[in-house]
Amino acid sequence: MITPRAAGHAAHLAADQLPAYVYDLADLADSARAVRAALPERAELYYAAKANPAAEILRTLAPHVSGYETASGGELAHVREAVPGMPLAFGGPGKTEAELRLALDLGVERFHVESEQELRLLADLADERPGGAPADILLRVNLPAVDAETSGAALAMGGRPSPFGLDPRSAEACLPLLRGRRLRLRGIHAHLASGLGPEAQLAVAARVTDWARDLAGRHRLQVTEVDVGGGMAVDYARPGARFDWQTYGRGLRELTAKHPDFTLRVEPGRALTAYCGWYVTEVLDLKHTHGEAFAVLRGGTHHLRTPAAKGHDHPFTVLPVDDWAQPWLRPAALGEPVTLSGQLCTPKDVFARRVPVARLRAGDRVAFAMAGAYAWNISHHDFLMHPPPTFHFLS
Ligand SMILES: *Cc1c(COP(=O)(O)O)cnc(C)c1O
């Protein structure tokens, strides 16, 4: 659950460096290489930067991805600077005029257009700059492709009423707006759900691709790209398991054979980077109240909001520390369930509830796994003004 490289580093950190985010970049490179190898040659792998936009992560992924999916002006500017020369797609709802201008200035390779209003705005801005290359766009559609209830999706962005993308009928109605504008329709984009296994992901991909082919046929469009989104499942209850990229890759290969005119693109975030990071901290206090054991850890969910956001028990490994300098008896939980909480003065500051441990003592270190995506960057860092963690990128 923790790589030897990360565990060794975590054990040797000085106490004043805790809590610490430790990232194993060599492990990240290995897994990204394996993901790329599992996908058909004609499929493109983009990384959704919002999962973890740290420059070291973006640069480690660069040799293994075709580009990056970004979803704000801030991400665009940051990713362009961190990995110059790599293709960028700009998606996300509610793009402002200033963000669209920035994207045009940066020469963003693909715009994922989310609405008719956004299309009109982008068309006006693109027309203002004669001489420049036209803006290349994909229309993001919200297709009824996934039954979130039966597929087990953790988060559904499409297939139901949502603020994401265009209703399929609106997408069709947008097509006349493209005529005579400095816009080039390259294809269709859909990101319908997060947390899907390979079969459900392939069903989504097939649905989106068929829809794109039918649309192109009906309107005689030169559509060559279909981006089938991200959302490959990550199971926090099984930190040793991985999304089955082999099965997914085989299915995509069949799909590319069926649609030789299309370049397929996938844009996972979480499934690429979740496993490369650990939040390492120490047990400050351990006590029993009303018959239950509580370990109070340095730091809290203001550094690692993932368990609070997702409502799960975050997986962890105990890194025992045998030194105990105090003259009094060391507080410990032995062979019993323990709730791991943080330093925040709220009962919501819990990493994991009533998880059985063989032994956990004050002064032991704890490494929370799967903290490489949607972890530090989604957390409410300033709440209670505790010191920030330190960051360690191991290569
Ligand atoms: C968030 C997002 C992704 C990545 O989702 P993961 O669940 O991290 O794989 C991809 N595409 C779009 C449009 C997104 O909003």
From TrEMBL:
Location of the active site: 345
BP GO terms, sorted: lysine biosynthetic process via diaminopimelate
Entry annotated with the keyword Lyase: yes
Record-listed E.C. numbers: 4.1.1.20
Cofactor entry: pyridoxal 5'-phosphate
GO molecular function list: diaminopimelate decarboxylase activity
Residues annotated as domain Orn/DAP/Arg decarboxylase 2 N-terminal: 26-274
InterPro entries membership: Ala_racemase/Decarboxylase_C (IPR009006), De-COase2_C (IPR022643), De-COase2_N (IPR022644), Orn/DAP/Arg_de-COase (IPR000183), PLP-binding_barrel (IPR029066)
Family assignment from sequence similarity: Belongs to the Orn/Lys/Arg decarboxylase class-II family.
Protein name: Diaminopimelate decarboxylase
Organism of origin: Streptomyces olivoverticillatus
